[in-house]
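Supplementary Methods S3. Input chains for the assembly prediction are listed below.
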Amino acid sequence: MQSTPKTLTSAGLRRDAGGSSDAALVQRVKQGERSAFDLLVAKYQHKILNLVMRYVKDPSEAMDVAQEAFIKAYRAVPSFRGDSAFYTWLYRIAINTAKNHLVAARRRPLSLEAELPEGDGFESFATLRDIDTPERLALTDEIGEAIASAVEDLPDELRTAILLREIEGMSYEEIAQAMDCPVGTVRSRIFRAREAIDKRIQELM
Amino acid sequence: MSEHFDEQISEFIDDEMSPEQCEFFVRRLQKDDEARARYMRYQLIGAAVRGEHIQRNALELRRRLEAALATDASAATAKGHAIAGHQLVVGAGIAAGFVLFAAIGWGVAMLDRLPPVDAGEFAAAVSGSSSLAAKPSASLDGGSWAGQMLVHHAGYSSGFNRTLTVLVAPEDEPSAALAAVPVD
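Predicted structure tokens for the full assembly:
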């Protein structure tokens, strides 16, 4: 197995800026296409949840906060001017939402759940919170393991290409220099790596 | 779906497209359910490879968001209709205001065209009687719009005439009525 070159680890968070891809999606959202926002959510949901969980430890509460942050972002997209990267903007919204949640939680005298009556109006709320079922936990663990295993099984050149891209955040051009191959080859290797991993997880999805 | 398009999904995720390519690609991606599903899986793979360890509930987040935003959109639509109705009423009010303002303006403009009025005629019109004993020495010309308006309304609008009669032209004091009218 070929290890990831250590000298390239500072290549950058630049890739997180999401430049043209995000700009194109944001533009579509501004035109009222919610499905474009769904693509942005798919891209950033893990990052945002991880971020929120640094503030809010309870997973279901973190989920509520992340959801609120995305909804705020969706409503505010028309005023997003693009002065900063979309993720930077979303990141700020998520942090503020999490902090506000903590402030509000401190003001709450008792746990809300303890006061909930068992009426009709609260059943759907309870259902929404009931997301960490054993089946789901097992499934997500299985997906995670399948991906890790698929990465291990990749040919060296594919694994290196995808790791440089995903972990180091390097551009195709930087990877081409690091691996001493044309940019087109890098593009193809990264795609083939994703394809190979995707085949392993498709049946689990 | 072609392999080339699949490769473009990968390229798009890595932000290796020009803005123009992105714009074109997103339009196509939005129409293609299978491509979108692949895009989602590639994003999931990326998160797992980056060690973001797939949050167990992240997979649920999109579904919940979709439901929440759909509700949000319905509410916004309903609110939009309510606002539109309110705006219609306000708009109609503003339009009516403009019409009233224009009518008043037109009335004032028309007054400027009235011929000079004799103060005696005015007093007679105000009092509703032709047997006024006193005839004032001053006359009102067309430039004195307030005086004209009083005369105009006194002469042609009976309701307003009565009001004016009470306010400024008691029958027993015709000269007092004239004293209230600007005279050049």
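The two ends of chain A are 28 Å apart (CA to CA). Chain A touches chain B through 67 residues (CB under 8 Å).
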